[in-house]
Design a protein that fits this description.
Elements (H helix, E strand, L loop, with lengths): L11 H7 L19 E6 L4 E5 L3 E2 L5 E2 L2 E5 L8 E5 L7 E7 L2 E6 L8 E5 L7 E5 L1 E2 L2 E2 L6 E3 L5 E5 L2 H4 L11 E6 L4 E6 L5 E6 L6 E5 L18
Antiparallel strand pairs: 1-2, 2-5, 3-4, 5-6, 7-8, 8-9, 9-10, 11-12, 13-14, 14-15, 15-16, 17-18
Length: about 230
């Protein structure tokens, strides 16, 4: 049996993915800012990984998030990284493969709405807005996203942006949404969460898993009586 001490295995199928000798290896780091925080969207054909940073202050003192492309087999033979212009994808967070490119969550700003943006995986990395409101009411700060095989887009929308000081007062509850690009229809699929965060489907897509990270709020406060669950 392989040493899985670095991994938490709750299903034998995951152990099969890991293989007999799994290991953790540091591929890339940057002491200037936390460049690898969310998304982690792998483009198989190019052997490239798109990640979003955590919030940081740039040289001008502005708080922002940086999208990066990690080239896993660069021309130099080493792992390389390219900083990608975000365009209208403000405070990018979660992401998923979509139409050969990436679908990013944009958490928004005091003046720019939160929502979902589609971005090309190739230069010049053109992007376009997919959705930015629920029947006229602006999203809080779209956090994570997944795409169903029927084409529908499911995403979480907690109020972290407001708590962290870069979004206006929320106009919606902490909810999970389903958007249909074909009909432009959008529905709230689940509520009652403290802070809905990560989201994914089971392999047969009959179950959607959502993490509730209400234990820690955007201002950094924690409370052991609040949910920290899936």
């Amino acid at each position: 049996m392989p040493d899985l001490s670095s991994f938490s295995v709750h299903d034998d199928a995951f152990a099969a993915v890991l293989g007999p000798e799994p290991k953790l290896e540091l591929l890339l780091e940057d002491d200037r800012y936390p460049f690898a925080h969310e998304a982690g969207v792998f483009i198989p054909d190019a052997n490239e990984l798109f990640v979003t940073s955590n919030r940081f202050q740039d040289g001008s003192g502005l708080e922002r998030v940086q999208i990066s492309k990690v080239v896993l087999s660069g021309a130099s033979g080493r792992v390389e990284r390219e900083e990608i212009p975000a365009g209208r994808i403000v405070m990018a967070n979660g992401g998923v493969n979509y139409n050969g490119g990436i679908l990013f969550c944009s958490q928004g700003s005091p003046t720019q709405p939160a929502g979902l943006h589609e971005m090309s995986a190739s230069p010049p990395y053109a992007s376009s807005l997919v959705v930015d409101n629920f029947h006229g009411r602006p999203f809080n700060s779209a956090n994570d996203v997944v795409v169903h095989s029927d084409g529908s887009i499911w995403f979480t929308d907690p109020i972290y942006g407001f708590e962290q000081g870069y979004r206006p007062t929320p106009q919606l509850p902490n909810q999970v949404y389903r958007y249909d690009p074909a009909t432009k229809g959008i529905r709230a699929m689940a509520d009652g969460f403290g802070r809905p965060n990560g989201i994914c489907f089971s392999p047969d897509e009959k179950i959607v898993y959502i993490t509730d990270t209400d234990w820690i709020h955007g201002d950094g406060t924690t409370d052991n009586t609040r949910p920290s669950s899936m």
